[in-house]
Amino acid sequence: MNIPSNPNTKINNDGDSFPPLFLYPNVVGCFLYVQILNYPYISYVVNTIAQFLASLQYQHYQALVQIFYYLTSILYLALCFNSTAKTILLERYGDAYYARNFTNQKSYTSMLLLLNLL
Hints:
The protein contains three helices and two strands, in the order H-H-H-E-E. By secondary structure, it is an alpha+beta fold.
């Protein structure tokens, strides 16, 4: 699984209802926690499925399963740095515009990582 969600799939309230799953809100909450700590690039799809906690449908469950498969497929991926530098300084800067686009109320975020070998 290369991406956490299919970009051509629209998740909405149209479709067949799904039997209520008591663990669905817990799993979505865990994904929200994971996105904040480790994987900020899955934020869009996790926040999208979090909007439909009250009216669970089959497409929401499919999106949840796809996120789970994606996270398990990248579990052992890591960045490895092999350097002779005495000090490695990793700096992270983030920026966010919350609902700055007044036509559709979209939020934008960005992140910059700098690696300095001293």
